[in-house]
Amino acid sequence: MTQVYDLQDWKKKFTLIWTGQTFSILTSSIAQFALVLWIGMETGSAKILAYATIAGLLPQILIGPFAGVFVDRWNKKWTMIASDSFVAICSAVIALLFYFNLLELWSIYLLLALRSIGGAFHSPAMKSTVPTLAPKDQLVRIAGINEVIQSVSLISGPALGAFLLLHYNMSIVMLLDVVGAGIACIMLLFVSFPKTKKATTTSTSVYKDMMEGGRIILKNKPMSWLLFSEIIARFFIFPVVAVTPLVTLNYYKGTPYQVSLVEMLFGVGLLVGGGLLALLNQRFRKISLAVIGYIVLGLALLICGSLSPHLFVIYAILTVVQGIAVPLYEGSITALIQTQFESKYLGRIFGLIGSICQIPAIIGLMFTAELADRFGVQNVYVAGGIALCFCAILVLSIRRVREL
To answer: Are 243 and 372 within 8 A, CB to CB?
Structure first.
C-alpha cells in the first residue's frame, strides 16, 4: 500500500530532527577535531593517528551487522536517543580524564571505540527512518540537506576546535559534545515516528536476520556491484582522512590554525556539494551524480599527491573540490539504497553495508600506519586518487549499474 505523506507534517518532523542533529554534529565536530589535533601535536605520528581512527571504526565493523538487526526490531526513535546518550557519556568520561590529567593513548583508543558503538546503532536507525518520514522523491534532497548540515559543522567545528584547544582545557571541549548530544535527544522527543512493520515474522534469531540482510543485498546484483565500488573507495579514502592533519603539519610545515583552515575549506566544499545534490537530484540520475563524485574526488586527490611543499594554497583550494565531490557520491549511494530495498529491512542492510565497507578501510589504515611514516603521506593521496578513478570506470563498465 502506498504511504501518504502530509507535506507540512514531514517537513516539521525533519526540522526538529535537523535542529537537534545540527547541534550534535557541530559539537562532535569540534570535539573530534580538537582531539585529533591534540594527538597530532603531541605525537606527530601517522601511525598513532591511524590507530586512533581504527579504534573508532573497529566496533562498527564487529557490531554493525547485529546492530542493524536490532534497529529493525526496536523502536528507532528510542534507539537514536539511547545511542546519542551513550556517546555523550563517553565524551563526559574523556572530559574527566583530561580534567584530572589521567588521559593516556590506550584510554583514548578505548573511549573512541565505545563512542563508535553508539554510532553503530544511531547511523542505521537514522538512515532507515528517513524513507518512513518523507516521500520517496524527496530522499536525494534530504540527503543533500544532511550533507549541508555536515558541512556547516565541518566549517565551524575545526575553527572552534582549534581555538578552544589553544585557549582552554580539552575537558571543556569534550563537555560541549555532551551538551550537543543532549539537545539532539530533546529534539527527538518531540518527533512522532510512524509505526512500521517489523521484519521479524519469519526469522527469530539475530544471526538469521543478519544473514537475510546479506541475501537481500546479493539478490540485487546492480547494487552489489555499486557497493563493491564503495568498498574499494573506502579502502583508500579513510587513510587520506587519517593523515590529512599530518600533511598540513609536517609536509607543508603548517600551524594548528592552518590545519583547522583545511578542515574548514573541506566543510565549505561539503556545503556546496550538498547544495548541488539537493538541487540536481531532479535533473540527473543518482548513479550519474555518484560517478561524477568519484571522478572529481579522484582527480583532486591525484593532484594533491603531486604538489610540492610550497604549494599549500593550491592544496587548500583542492580541499574545497574534494568536499564538493563527497556528497555527490555518498548522498546518491545512500538514496539508492533507500529506494532499492524495502524500508523494513533497511536497518540491517545499512548496518551490514557499514560494516562490510569499513573492513577494507581498517586494512587500508593499517598499511598507512607503516607506509606513511616511511615513504611520506603524499603517496596516500596518489593511491586514493587512482582508486577513485577506477571506481568510476567500474561503475560505468557495468550496464545494469549504469541503469540504476
So the answer is: yes
Per residue in 193-227, pLDDT (tens digit) is 766 555 544 445 666 766 777 788 888 888 888 88
pLDDT at 158: 66
Nearest-CA neighbor of 403 among 220, 279, 246?
220
- Selection from 174, 248, 187, 233 nearest residue 361 by Cα: 233
Would you list the DSSP string of 308-343?
-TT-HHHHHHHHHHHHHHHHHHHHHHHHHHHHHS-G
Distance CA 283, CA 87 (A): 39
* Residue 21 CB neighbour total at 10 angstroms: 24
For 65, the grid coordinates are 551487522
Task: List Cβ neighbours of 304 (8 Å cut-off, separation of 6 or more).
Answer: 315, 318, 319, 322, 378, 381, 385
Residue 6 CA to residue 388 CA, distance in Å, equals: 40
Distance CA 108, CA 34 (A): 13
Give the residue carrying C-alpha cell 585529533. 36
Q: Residue 334: phi, psi to the nearest 5?
A: -60, -45
Grid coordinates 527527538 are at which residue?
188
pTM reported for the whole predicted model: 0.65
Q: Report residue 275: phi and psi, to 5°.
A: -65, -40
Measured CA to CA, the distance from residue 295 to residue 52 in angstroms comes to 29
Q: What angle do CA 353, 87, 235 make, to 5 degrees?
A: 35
